[in-house]
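May I ask for a single protein's sequence together with how it folds?
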Amino acid sequence: MLTLEGMEHQQDSFHLSASFSLETGTTTAVIGPSGGGKSTLLNCIAGFAKPRRGRVIWNGEELSALNPGERPISSVFQDNNLFPHMSCFENVAIGLRPSLRLTGDETAQVRTALIRVGLAELSDRKPAALSGGQQSRVALARVLVRQRPLLLLDEPFAALGPALRGEMLDLVAELAAVSRATLLMVTHDPSDAKRIAQQTIFVEAGKVHPPVATLDLFAAPPKALEQYLGVDQ
């Protein structure tokens, strides 16, 4: 279980507060206006931003004092964080060993991950030779080999068209289900949340509302969410 207990983050005049729990193995969407605090929330969980008070707890272990690399977390961002001078294989392998000096078993893990995301034939290509969807698949393969139980997605598919974005979301949901990962996904699009998230968190002006069942939330949204969605939603 992931728990944020009285967590508060302050940066200049922006203040974020959050208290909620997510059951292990669930998929949760995070939605709300730009600048409301969605990315800051994920950064606090991942350790890239330091809350001024409160605790981040994973399965009873407090993470607050741990550096990002020490936390049981993998993150995928909109730019996918791929190294342009490395091949697909190397970009995945670095998730296991920054030195890229893999054992035979580790090499097999990387190849298996590339097969699972449909890139087995493109393992020698560099990111510039890949489409946006293929680059996203490389980032997901790296998540697979890291085998961390908590996965944070910060709009990694926002630049993709609707059909390809839907395909990538389905792949994420499938991979999370197989690995039993707890998934927290930032999105601007309600259809993304409805597609794969059992529950959704609404974030606005630094206030993180408790998670609500996704279909229930959009069927009867609170006023602030209704204003964000607009009348055509």
The mean pLDDT is 89. DSSP finds eight helices and eleven strands in the chain.
